[in-house]
């Protein structure tokens, strides 16, 4: 086993929404080769990126995440819309938005960030902007993709999220592979190992 793992904390999307996103992305892929599209099975909402994490921190991190998640009820989240970061003139990331009306999603991200800071992880400097990345721009000539996305955003889909996942990210030539390390249920203890 490696002395460290590349980790992040995420909310996974149900297969129905991943499939709907794949259907949304398919016609966009035909408009430009200048985008590296995220594989449907890899689409998720990142709550906190941790990067290379020593295995010695894993147990404390798992206990901390279990404690944080116990304090939250399941979240009703709407997946809808489309946008680009940082802006439409210089797009680097193509995304679909997430909205959670009670504000608990933002509080969850803040609480995870604050608690993980106690274990030595740096605080997040950017405001939390819930989204799922669907593509990363390789070539600036993607105006048709951006135009189509903004004119025809992803239609609303609702999901109930009852857990967050500590994920391992392995980088490969063909793209990243994400493997659940542990899932943490909202309102109760950890659900199960990956």
Report on the structure:
With 194 residues, the protein is of the alpha+beta class. It has one domain (4-186): Cyclic phosphodiesterase (Cyclic Phosphodiesterase, Chain: A, Alpha-Beta Complex). Helix content is 26%, strand content 40%. The chain is built from four helices and ten strands. It has helices spanning 15-29, 58-70, 104-117, 143-151, and strands at residues 4-12, 35-37, 44-54, 75-85, 93-99, 131-137, 154-161, 163-170, 177-185, 190-193. The strands form two sheets. Strands 3-1-8-9-10 form a five-stranded antiparallel β-sheet, with helices on one face. It has a five-stranded antiparallel β-sheet with strand order 2-6-5-4-7. The radius of gyration is 17 Å and the shape is globular. The relative contact order is 0.25.
CATH superfamily: Cyclic phosphodiesterase
CATH class: Alpha Beta
Q: Which percent range describes the beta-strand content?
A: 35-45%
Tally of strands: 10
What low-confidence regions span 5 or more consecutive residues with pLDDT below 50? 189-194
**Measured on Cα atoms, how large is the radius of gyration?**
17 Å
Described by the principal axes of the CA atoms, the overall outline is: globular
How many individual domains?
A: 1
Query: From the 3D coordinates, which CATH architecture would you assign?
Result: Alpha-Beta Complex
Separation of termini? 16 Å
Percentage of residues assigned to helices: 25-40%
Q: Number of helical runs?
A: 4
Helix/strand/pairing category = alpha+beta
Order of helices and strands: EHEEHEEHEHEEEE
CATH topology tier name: Cyclic Phosphodiesterase, Chain: A
As laid out across the biggest beta sheet, the strand order is: 3-1-8-9-10
């Amino acid at each position: 086993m490696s002395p460290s793992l590349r980790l992040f904390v995420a909310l996974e999307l149900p297969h129905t929404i991943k499939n709907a996103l794949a259907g949304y992305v398919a016609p966009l892929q035909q408009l430009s080769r200048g985008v590296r599209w995220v594989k449907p099975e890899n689409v998720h909402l990142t709550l906190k990126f941790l990067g290379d994490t020593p295995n010695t921190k894993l147990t404390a991190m798992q206990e901390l995440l279990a404690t944080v998640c116990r304090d939250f009820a399941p979240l009703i989240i709407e997946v809808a819309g489309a946008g680009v970061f940082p802006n439409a003139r210089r797009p680097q990331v193509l995304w679909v938005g997430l909205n959670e009306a009670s504000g608990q999603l933002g509080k969850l991200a803040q609480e995870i960030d604050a608690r993980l800071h106690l274990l030595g992880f740096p605080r997040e400097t950017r405001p939390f902007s819930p989204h799922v990345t669907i593509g990363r721009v390789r070539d600036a000539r993607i105006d048709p993709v951006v135009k189509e996305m903004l004119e025809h955003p992803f239609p609303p889909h609702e999901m109930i999220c009852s857990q967050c996942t500590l994920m391992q990210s392995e980088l490969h030539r063909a793209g990243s592979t994400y493997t659940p390390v542990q899932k943490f249920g909202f309102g109760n203890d950890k659900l199960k190992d990956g």
